[in-house]
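Let's practice the habit of predicting before peeking. Look at the sequence and jot down your guess about where helices and strands might fall. Then scroll down.
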Amino acid sequence: MKKLQQFKIYAFTYERISNSNFNITTTPFEAELKEEVISLGDNECLRAIRRITNHPFSDFRLAELAEEKKIILKKRNSTENKRKIKDINNEIRRLLFIPEIISVSTKRNKSYLKLGKNGFYVNGIHYIRFMCGAGHARTNRAMYCDEKIFNQLVSILRNGCADIPIVGAKYNAYFSLSGSATYRVSSPRFCVVPDKEIKMVKSVDWVEEEGEDDIISRQDKELTFNLWDGMGIISPEFAKIWANELEIDYLPSAFVCRAPFTKGLVCTFDFKDFSEKVAQSKKIIDIYGKEWNCDDLDIILTESQFKYAKAFESIEQFNKNMEKNELKWGVSKVSPKNEDLVKMSNYQFLQVLNCNDEDIKNLCSYTLEWIKSVSCKDYERTLLYLFGKLVKKYSAINIFDKIGDSFIKALIINPELIGDSYIIDRIYHSLEKRKKESCMGKLIFNGNFQFLIMDPYALCEHIFGLEVKGLLKEFEHYSKYWLDKGEKQVCALRSPMTWRSEVNLLNLKDNEEVNYWYKYLQSGIILNVWGYDNMLFAGSDADGDTLFTTNDKTYLKCRYGGVPVAYQPKKAEKVNIDLSSLYNLDVLGFNTKIGFITNCSTTLYEMQTMYEPGSKEYNEIENRLKLCCKYQSHEIDHAKGIQTKPFPKHFTTFDKIKETDSEEEKQLKLFNNKLVIEKRTYFMRHRYPQYNQEYKNHIADFDRYCLTKYNCKYKELPEDFKKTEEYKELKKYYDYRNPLLETNGTMNRICYYMENELKNIKQRNHRVSNDILYKILNNENILIDSSKLSLLNEVYEEYVSFKRDKMLSNSDFATYEQFYKYLRNKSLENISNNIQELANLSVYLCYKLKKNKDFCWEIFGTGIVSNLIENKINSGDSNVMLPQSYKDGEIEYLGENFTMLPYNLETQDSNLDIDDEELFNFNLFDDIDSDNLGVQNDSF
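Done guessing? Here is the structure:
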């Protein structure tokens, strides 16, 4: 898939704006140094701004500049070459920087209201509030726009829609769709059909709001379901057109698309074939009452996707306005050619399971074996770990050029470098992070995330006016991926996950009929339209939501089952939109408590293990866990302007008992105080350093006491002693003072097990000497110039001083990477414009003179790689070995087989300078992290 161009904009905090008296003076270069610049993927809003301002961006010119820079970096040192590099960097910055739009973040709502009302100035230009979608609000951000282009830009992006009453938060979300990163694609011939809402009676845990405490009871309730909320269909023929435009070599099963006030998922389904074989009619009636012939359509949307339907008179008017405003359809995401074979879970997915000790061991086994295999003892698997997603995205023929980290390229060129202490430490540092994450529930499972798709056959029945029956009955589902693996049942989950019943069991249907009609749905989890699956998936819809599914036998065994939690939702009031006051709505979505509520439920799961099943405390915690589902939904409702009941204060706060309280009130307060959520769970020590330190201090205190009194540490006290009353009193005090809950819930037990097992994984002992490494890294064709070496040593001393004295917080640099970039450019401009010469000098300093190796790799890594390539080619052997996915390959890694294939270095595109990271940006360690982890907040 082609790479989406990234652009740069200013990004300020409210505090920065306020401290500058709402009038900032800066430049893009200065802002970059202070980390006040962020990247945005290209979108219709940015494209409109570039048209309005005649912005000079050109794909062709950008590629030219990148090529020019690579050529100059290979040339001999000269003043002229240094000047050219400066000019190229400045022109790249000018092409990619969009000054007309600014991201603003805030921590305090009241402060933001002042900003929203008056705006602020940057370099003498007045910026006013422009957009704040759901994604912005979740991170306490809003976008501000140059006042001079505001009216024209808003007019373009509204696409001629009429002013009609609408829920303010919905308008914000729909208007902000223009800010979604998209690949432009051809505009389809499309129509919009009405939604299908039906009422069905379902058994649920029903929440009634009554006084301070809600009442939960199992009831059969009549509920309303929008069967294809956020979903439509695309013809296979048009899907091929979009696939070609996106430069992908397969037919996607689904696309997440965007257009003005239009969003959602379109799955690939042959509705024209359906019209002939099933409907025996080509007639479709849209929401405006117009009749369409399905042969004249490429896409059919449901009204839930066409967000501002009543603001347009017809599809023709909408299309005409798009042409006038030069707007296009876009695709933000497509289903993959091949699904991931494994994914990492998260603690939300694990804390809801009912596991014994053997189950815990089974859940962790895959992850432990993986960590062992990539700990530098197995070169090929270590290399596959470092490659991450690139090994699936690219073939061995072109993967080398796509690697962004110099030490990985170096390791490929000369595998002996796996004995370099710098490279070993880099790999171990990365693995230490993985180890900590595994203790927090990031465990590897067979499975993946796929789009949630509601039965498209049933949708076609609705589109063509037939009785809706569908191919799937209640409790029936479909997944080509899992059926091909011979699975009939899998577990499905979606974050944020709060209650146990949300681990949903899917029963996969497989027959000739479903395989025929779903033949284009090679990817995706297809749900029936008769169940309440979406309720079990945290209120999901089909507009691009993804589900994690796994066939893990332990997962299937340990799920609880059950019914969803439900309540009667309220509706927000529709209003006439006043663009000048929309900032008042922004703050409703700021400082969301979804993460806070998720953290509360996590603690409740561990607290429940302190009580006997069936006890009053146990049952009350059970109810509170269910209520967390409701309060998470309330947070979403609150962002829409709906008045909701606040999260119960007595869940997290002790209630003081007064003398005037009745006996009944005193007993109730005592009971609630007993269940107050006041501590983090033990496994969270691996997420929050401050809690980890507090816990270590707590352990140290009790170890000192126990060593003095019992001659052993607290956790080494003998089993016989643990049966005594003295120990019970000691443990009671230990638990009271403990900053964390050391209980025996599923997640804590996973953490205990992983901590213990990870201690036994040994590191690589063999390290190669610096003398041998210097011979490998040194380019003998570049002589060491003593005067340049002396100048570079001064740069080295600046580097060491900066890091030793921890000067980052008091510098003009926001990150160490920015400081490294400054040193690199300083060396290119003042010592040598040849990156290979600088690399050779730095290797001499670090390996021959035994200075800190981080310096040469962090500042001149690309030059080191170039020297290694030159050495390799000059040796007469320009081939290196790279892993390639291969069915019968001899290397098994994360469920897939690989083999090592030769790659000729003389064909590679070398010397991409790290300054071009905005053009060539890949995250090599983003290998198997899970999607959809939900928003997490750091505090209760």
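How did you do? The first strand starts at residue 6 and ends at 13.
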